[in-house]
Amino acid sequence: MKILFLFGTRPEAIKMAPLIREFRTFPEEFHVKVCVSAQHREMLDQVLSFFELSPEFDLDIMRPDQSLSSVTVEVLEGMREVLSRFRPDMLFVQGDTTTTFAGALAAFYEKVPVAHLEAGLRSFNKYSPFPEEVNRVLTSHISDLHFAPTPRARENLLCESVPDERIFVVGNTSIDALFLCLKKVAGKTREDFPPLRLLAPDRKVILVTGHRRESFGRPFENICNALRTVALRGDVDIVYPVHLNPNVRKPVFDILHDVPNVHLLEPLDYPALVWLMNKSYFVLTDSGGIQEEAPSLGKPVLVMRDVTERTEGVDAGTARLVGTAEETIREESLRLLTDRAAYEKMSGAVNPYGDGKTSGRIADILRRL
pLDDT (tens digit, 9 = 90+) per residue, 16-29? Predict the structure, then answer.
């Protein structure tokens, strides 16, 4: 069976890598090739290097100030050529990026079946997250196989009339990747990661990641002002690997650059991020992947969004929606720092997203099919 994996961003690569590794353990059954769009070039290449992945096809579409329209068009055009050259029996796409949707659409035009990894997530607000919510809904209605991470994701698909026999609840490959990485960073210290050597060994660390388009402008200013207030207590280190998008970098550096215990770093490579997440006290994020990963490490997650498609974590108690209001972010952060019972309740909750065995389940399903 000829299988083509397509991805373009770092989160996609992290979630695809363990699945690609798994499929390649059955060379007599699967002929595997990898295509990257390079929607995010530098951050993608870090993950490819870590997981020792060498794509057979590279669309190399990243451009300065690229628009969603240009990404869509370039992926469609690039994939037409790749699909005609390789003629896969199935295209695997992951999640909800513009590469995911455009790749699935290109496969549909070439009548190539599509398998959707991490299918069925829904926020039910087409502008939050933007454009991800619409990307994943449209991808679902193109796809032939749906690998849902949770029973709730399966129910979302059923409500959209996706046939039950095409849906498989398998967990999330982000946990597979996390466990692989934890093995590689076991025993390492901050000295092994140069950007993290500046952390004080005796202070709690708050990890922050934020990049969502819907937070550009005033919401990002609110987030940064809340972080500034928390940091000025002086008893924590806040580590913020700042996304490369200028709409993120400007407010972050304008508001936080002069606070000594706020460390504004360039984006970390995946091993350093996992090591830091494991050492952190809790996480403030608007990232989908970290909402899944941090609970596996026993880290409470404050989600800086008004809605989330990963409601299982909120229901389980591992995550809490705090939005982008300055006061709410500040108060919920201080509560975790000062209320031990509240912290232990969140850190001890069960992670609903997976057990590290998702890739094996998916490979077994394809082998049966």
Answer: 999 999 999 999 99
Q: Which residue type, as a one-letter code, is found at position 128?
A: S
Q: What is the phi/psi pair of residue 264, to 5°?
A: -95, 110
Check 31, 213, 228, 249 and give the catalytic one. Answer: 213
- Out of 132, 176, 286, 326, the active site residue is 132
- Catalytic: 60? no
Q: What pTM value is reported for the model?
A: 0.91
Q: Is 118 a catalytic residue?
A: yes
* Model confidence pLDDT, tens digit, residues 93-134: 999 999 999 999 999 999 999 999 999 999 999 998 999 999
Active site residue 160: no
Among the listed residues 74, 118, 286, 309, the single catalytic one is 118
Domains of the chain and any CATH numbers: 2-172+355-368 (3.40.50.2000), 188-347 (3.40.50.2000)
Neighbour order of strands in the sheet with 114-117:
57-58, 31-36, 2-7, 90-94, 114-117, 145-148, 167-169
Is the omega angle on the peptide bond into residue 131 within 30 degrees of 0, that is, cis? yes
